[in-house]
Amino acid sequence: MVEELVAAGATLASAAVVYVMAAARVVKQYERGVVFRLGRLRDEVRGPGFTMIVPFVDRLQKVNMQVVTMPVPAQEGITRDNVTVRVDAVVYFKVTGPSEAIVRVEDYRFAVAQMAQTSLRSIIGKSELDDLLSSREKLNQGLELMIDSPAVEWGVTIDRVEIKDVSLPETMKRSMARQAEADRERRARVINADAELQASKKLAEAAQQMADTPAALQLRLLQTVTAVAAEKNSTLVLPFPVELLRFLERAQQPAGAPQPVPQQPVQAQQQPVEARPQPVQEQLPPPVPRLDSAPEGSNSRQD
């Protein structure tokens, strides 16, 4: 009798162990458990930790509650201004309703991926190229709203959507580069013109100041000489202003001396003069009388 009781107890213990092993489940911290009893969804969602189910009656399905990072494949489309581009993005989402994510959609990951691709194509067709390149924050918000609207019914919440890259054709890249170069050249010319205008105003003021004080012109000339001499050139060509010569001429005159009155040049009519040979008279010394003695034996007779 005792042996039968011991055997029965051992059998019950073994059955209990087998039952516990079959019914025991462990749900991790980042997971939630959804129980189906005979194919019917239970309202209670099992939290993290150790839990028990009825073997062969209940089925526990775990749902990951972490944020999922899903890359969206590059989608090729035509923008509103007829430019062909390829755009890829990334979607961040998480499950907020475990029961809806299991019951209402077959595979919520695949559903979110397909919705992200179709929404990205729609955004490309509604936007212009400049918006894709510069206004990405606005496009990201619109894309997030388009994906999040149907995903709420699946128990999924879209945290964030980011457009990663926009690929352009090579011809469009060259056109944009030429446009940017032309714009920079235009701004450079405007800046140079503005600088010339300001410099001309300053030079006009400086010229007026030097006209009032002629000594400033000489000082400026000496500064120019100093600046050119610093280059250590062997030849120095320096223009000398006429105003400086007049200033030095006035400075050398005494204070009481009258200022010379400039005379108006008289234009005389020049008539052609014929070149005639002039006789040259040579001044010769007077002739000297010559007294020659008559030779002896001559028959000359002196009258």
TrEMBL record:
SMART domains: PHB (SM00244). Coiled coil: none annotated. SUPFAM superfamilies: Band 7/SPFH domain. Residues 253-303 are annotated as: Disordered. Residues 22-180 form the Band domain. One of its GO terms (cellular component) is side of membrane. Pfam families: Band_7. InterPro entries: Band-7_stomatin-like, Band_7, Band_7/SPFH_dom_sf, Stomatin_HflK_fam. Residues 264-283 have a biased composition (Low complexity). Belongs to the band 7/mec-2 family. This is Slipin family protein. It comes from Streptomyces guryensis.
